């Protein structure tokens, strides 16, 4: 409702009529006008609109600064929410006085939460009405440290559990000697309760907790009591959501039997295994306490199945093998038995391949069995190879460790720069051991990967040459600061044999290109023979790369690579490659573009790998 209304134009008074204003005493009119003015002020409305174009008075902006040790200043500024208070304008003296008291009280509360119970806080008002400023001065004093921790755990019948108490104390996150911080106190209690509830005692609860603080001595004594509740065991397993696949697909992934001690960690492991099988869009595993039957907890698995068949088309380009077109077809339920069929046709400028593989559902012992056939043609660095490979494999994963045993039969034909064609065969048993400690498989930023491969061939077992192949590859991601990352990579390989003759090229070593020694063409480092580069029996490469992330998804890199491949380590002379690059964290993974210079050849080339799948 507007505060002022336009009055109607005066009309002539009829003859003999006296206007009301002239009939009302003057003090009454004055009282009415005063009441109207007070009402207008209470409603916050001006008595009269300011003329158009009139200058408005300047609004004074309140400034608040915190003077405290550097280690505490950022936490205080964030906790006090200074931005909200600094929006106050035209603050009167009474408001500033209340603000000073509120700032002092909240600053002391924040300091106590950070472990400073004997602090001194002064809030001073500076500046005039045109530029008011509030200064918060903090002398935190010595921090309060934990002097004692007592953790008590009562068992299912109320009896003490000294072994469990010692286990909780070993992992206690706020030990004696550490500064008593409120957030860490809460987290320590939550972690201890989680330790109890995820191992056997699913109904564990926190009974009481006390933190006795002595500001004069700067000491805190902590007392925590837990009730473990009953000890639970795994009960029956119920599966829902299956329509296409047999229930054994789920049950073979279960790593416990009914009656074994309950562990939430095992539930999470089962959920991760289900999500990694490719059979399901999602999977949840739960053991609700409400469904407990005595001391047994039934386990409920809820899944949603993936579509059985999938077609894929991909296009891309790599500076290693150049233009690429790829066709994929997969069937997750071949013959209605949950057998997984995967086939792929890959057409690249320098090599072409066809692969078809058949994988079977995981067995109760955690093993994955598969078999596959691959046909490949390649023309790289003057060497043309055509190979046919038949392979069998068993793979097992335990946490970050993965092992795979394989058996391959390789038939390969080789031709060097238009010369005669030679043929090699080998029956190769192999072993691969991998430690994968990365924070992400798609876009790792921290962690390490270490892989060891062993392979062998015997003339007495369908091989043209006796040999033993060892290959060790390592990768380390180091996060230096919020925007700087270091990537270290190295590989060493050796083939022990009387000669390289008779050994298929895929069991020998060549280097060069993206993922190896950048600045040199793909597989251009090796043994020169008849105008071509063929594989050698020794390999050594190393790489150091520094990445500075300019934006969350964009970064710039500097790198230095070194290494080579030869027929022996005595004949191996490492070459150097270095350059700069651009990095992009795309939805499909990390993409890189490098301008790399090979010191041995003097050539500089653009290297990148980019592709998109449909």
Low-confidence stretches: 1-59
Which class of secondary structure composition applies to the elements? alpha+beta
CATH topology category name of the largest domain: Porin
Text of the CATH class of the largest domain: Mainly Beta
Give the strand tally: 27
* Number of domain modules: 4
Radius of gyration: 38 Å
Approximate helicity band = 10-25%
- Principal-axis shape: globular
Question: What is the typical, i.e. mean, pLDDT?
Answer: 87
Give the terminus-to-terminus CA distance. Answer: 61 Å
Percentage of β-strand residues: over 45%
CATH superfamily annotation of the largest domain: membrane protein fhac: a member of the omp85/tpsb transporter family
Describe this structure in words.
The protein is built from 9 helices and 27 strands. It is α+β, with helices and mostly antiparallel strands and about 625 residues long. The chain folds into 4 domains: about 65-140, Ubiquitin-like (UB roll), CATH 3.10.20; about 145-225, Roll (Ubiquitin-like (UB roll)), CATH 3.10.20; about 235-305, membrane protein fhac (Ubiquitin-like (UB roll)), CATH 3.10.20.310; about 310-614, membrane protein fhac: a member of the omp85/tpsb transporter family (Porin, Beta Barrel), CATH 2.40.160.50. The chain has a 16-stranded antiparallel beta barrel. A hairpin with a 4-residue loop joins strand 11 (about 320-335) and strand 12 (about 340-350).
């Amino acid at each position: 409702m507007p505060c002022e209304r336009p009055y109607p134009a005066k009309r002539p008074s009829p003859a003999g009529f006296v206007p009301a204003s002239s009939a009302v005493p003057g003090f009454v009119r004055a009282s009415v006008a005063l009441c109207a003015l007070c009402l207008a002020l209470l409603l916050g409305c001006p008595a009269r609109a300011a003329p158009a174009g009139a200058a408005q008075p300047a609004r004074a902006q309140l400034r608040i600064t915190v003077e405290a040790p550097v280690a505490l200043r950022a936490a205080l500024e964030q906790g006090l929410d200074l931005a909200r208070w600094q929006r106050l304008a035209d603050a009167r003296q009474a408001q500033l006085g209340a603000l000073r008291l509120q700032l002092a009280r909240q600053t002391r509360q924040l300091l106590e939460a950070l472990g400073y119970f004997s602090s001194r806080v002064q809030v001073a008002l500076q500046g005039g009405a045109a530029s008011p400023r509030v200064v918060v001065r903090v002398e935190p004093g010595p921090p309060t440290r934990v002097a004692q921790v007592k953790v008590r755990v009562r068992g299912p019948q109320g009896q003490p559990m000294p072994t469990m108490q010692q286990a909780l104390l070993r992992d206690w996150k706020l030990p004696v000697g550490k500064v008593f911080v409120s957030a860490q106190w809460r987290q320590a209690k939550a972690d201890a309760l989680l330790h109890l509830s995820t191992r056997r005692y699913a109904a564990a609860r926190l009974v009481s907790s006390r933190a006795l603080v002595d500001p004069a001595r700067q000491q805190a004594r902590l007392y925590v009591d837990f009730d473990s509740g009953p000890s639970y065991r795994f009960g029956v397993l119920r599966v829902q959501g299956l329509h296409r696949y047999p229930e054994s697909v789920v049950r073979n992934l279960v790593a416990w039997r009914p009656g074994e001690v309950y562990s939430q960690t095992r539930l999470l492991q089962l959920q991760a295994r289900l999500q990694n099988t490719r059979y399901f869009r999602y999977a949840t595993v739960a053991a609700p306490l409400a469904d407990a039957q005595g001391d047994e907890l039934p386990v409920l698995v809820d899944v949603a199945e993936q579509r059985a068949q999938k077609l894929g088309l991909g296009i891309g380009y790599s500076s290693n093998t150049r233009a690429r077109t790829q066709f994929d077809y997969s069937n997750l339920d071949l013959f209605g038995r949950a057998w997984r069929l995967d086939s792929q046709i890959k057409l690249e400028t320098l090599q072409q391949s066809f692969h078809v593989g058949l994988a079977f559902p995981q067995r109760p012992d955690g093993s994955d069995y598969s078999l596959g056939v691959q046909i490949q043609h390649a023309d790289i660095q003057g060497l043309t190879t055509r190979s046919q490979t038949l392979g069998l494999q068993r793979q097992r994963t335990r946490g970050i460790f993965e092992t795979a045993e394989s058996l391959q039969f390789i038939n390969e034909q080789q031709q060097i720069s238009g010369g005669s064609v030679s043929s090699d065969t080998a029956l190769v048993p192999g072993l691969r051991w991998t430690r994968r400690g990365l924070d992400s498989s798609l876009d790792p930023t921290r962690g390490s990967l270490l892989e060891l491969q062993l392979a062998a061939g015997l003339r007495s077992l369908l091989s043209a040459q006796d040999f033993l192949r060892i290959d060790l590859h390592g990768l380390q991601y180091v996060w230096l600061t919020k925007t700087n990352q270091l990537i270290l990579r190295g590989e060493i390989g050796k083939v022990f044999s009387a000669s390289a003759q008779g050994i298929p090229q895929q069991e020998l070593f060549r280097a060069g290109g993206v993922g190896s020694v950048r600045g040199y063409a793909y597989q251009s480092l090796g043994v020169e023979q008849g105008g071509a580069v063929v594989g050698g029996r020794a390999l050594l490469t190393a790489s150091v790369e520094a990445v500075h992330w300019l934006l969350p998804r964009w970064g710039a890199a500097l790198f230095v690579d070194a290494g080579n491949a030869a027929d022996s380590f005595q004949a191996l002379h490492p070459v150097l490659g270095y350059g700069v690059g651009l990095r992009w964290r795309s939805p499909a993974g990390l993409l890189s573009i490098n301008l790399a210079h090979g010191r041995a050849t003097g050539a500089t080339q653009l290297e990148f790998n980019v592709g998109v799948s449909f």
